[in-house]
Automatic annotation (TrEMBL):
This is prephenate dehydratase. Keywords: Amino-acid biosynthesis, Aromatic amino acid biosynthesis, Lyase, Phenylalanine biosynthesis. The keyword Lyase applies. Residues 33-211 form the Prephenate dehydratase domain. Pathway: Amino-acid biosynthesis; L-phenylalanine biosynthesis; phenylpyruvate from prephenate: step 1/1. It is an enzyme of class 4 (lyase). GO terms for molecular function: prephenate dehydratase activity. The keyword Amino-acid biosynthesis applies. Its EC number is 4.2.1.51. GO terms for biological process: L-phenylalanine biosynthetic process. GO terms for cellular component: cytoplasm.
Amino acid sequence: MKKLITIILLGLTLVSCTTSREKCEWTRLTGESVSYLGPEGTYTGQAAMLFFGDDASYHAKKTVSDAVTLMIDGKCNFAVIPQENTVGGPVTAYIDELLSHDDISVICETELVIDQALLVKKGTKLSDITLICSHEQGLLQGKLWLEENLPLAQTRVVSSTAEGARLASISDGSVAAVASAAAADVYGLEVYAPRIQESDANKTRFYALSMGEGSILRA
Ligand SMILES: O=C(O)C(=O)C[C@]1(C(=O)O)C=C[C@@H](O)C=C1
């Protein structure tokens, strides 16, 4: 319960810490090692870079649970996870992840504007697409656009938007992904349609976690 209250209070009060890495003033450690929801090209990866910059070493994990477990096992110092989206709402599995460990602290948070794009293999036409892969939040955020433009295509929930992009890149062109334009670069895909999310106010909040009391937080 103490942890729940702490998290709620952090969510409500860390306004000074929500906009940029600069405002998350913690004592920088050398050799920071950070796990996050991967693979390369996720929004969570973007948040991790914002928090920890170029000098950290990064571990892209398949699930949020894997990312948090790596930190709990002492194999990295921090974990970065998504927490809530303005369209899709709170992702309770992630919050459960926090609550299940008494000694995890939220040391900082940030909110990113999420621009979802439809990514395809180069030269693909809309009529070629039979399957769209993304994180459940990506499919939710792009739902209206997808229903209007690809009403016959199937959708598949995968572990992250970047995983969707990876799957599209190894497909025969019939698979598209809802992911970031940055993921298109990582996986050699083309942005077929930018900004397909339902709302221009599409934002996701991310937490940086550490073990212990969160003493490096400067609220
Ligand atoms: O799949 C990703 O790229 C993530 O970082 C996860 C996630 C989420 O869990 O909400 C993060 C931001 C977007 O809202 C879509 C997906």
